[in-house]
Write a structure and sequence with these properties.
- The protein is an alpha+beta fold.
- It has one domain (about 10-80, about 120-170): CNF1/YfiH-like putative cysteine hydrolases, CATH 3.60.140.
- It is about 25% helix and about 25% strand.
- The protein has 5 helices and 10 strands.
- The chain is globular.
Length: about 170
């Protein structure tokens, strides 16, 4: 089945490579070690504010019996807080969805009083809120915008930049 255009996918089927493409958005890879299920998530600000992590974990629970305590999670390279300036509409969408960015390290103003958010950290906090133990979450420090030799960045290169592929597969 063709899955282009979806921001998350899950499976228990062996030999299927679940992947997401990103250029600044957050790639998350999930592994349920007890039920041998996997998930791949593309989390931009819209998906994150729409609680894509929660929805994916609930889908894994419904389909595979996944308990969040059994999840190992990897959060891959994405734009970092220093380079991710967003408008008030982004803050409003997070607030509408019940996120309190004021109590998170994911929120700050720079000298120009523009809002900066840390999508990787917001998604890490979502995993924790859903019950994934902190010690079972790996989060890279790499910023796609700030590392032009290593990564593509839609903000740095325009929307027509290349994309990175992040994936997970059961053997």
């Amino acid at each position: 089945e063709r899955l282009y255009g979806y921001d998350a996918s899950v499976t228990q089927e062996k030999g299927y490579f679940l992947c997401v493409t990103t250029a600044d958005c957050v790639p998350l890879l999930l592994f349920d070690r007890k039920n041998e299920a996997i998930g791949a998530i593309h989390a931009g600000w819209k998906g994150t504010s729409g609680r894509i992590v929660e929805k994916t974990l609930l889908e894994m629970k419904k389909n595979f019996g996944t308990e969040t305590r059994d999840i190992l999670a990897a959060i891959g390279p994405a734009i970092g807080i220093d380079n991710y300036e967003v408008g008030r509409e982004v803050e409003e969408e997070f607030q509408k969805s019940g996120f309190n960015l004021n109590k998170s390290i994911s929120y700050r103003h720079n000298l120009s009083r523009k809002l900066h958010i840390d999508l990787k950290e917001i998604n890490r906090q979502e995993l924790i809120r859903m019950g994934v133990p902190k010690h079972q979450i790996e989060k890279t420090r790499y910023c796609t915008y700030g590392n032009s030799r290593l990564f593509f960045s839609a903000r740095r290169q325009s929307l027509h930049s290349g994309r990175m592929l992040s994936g997970i597969m059961l053997r």
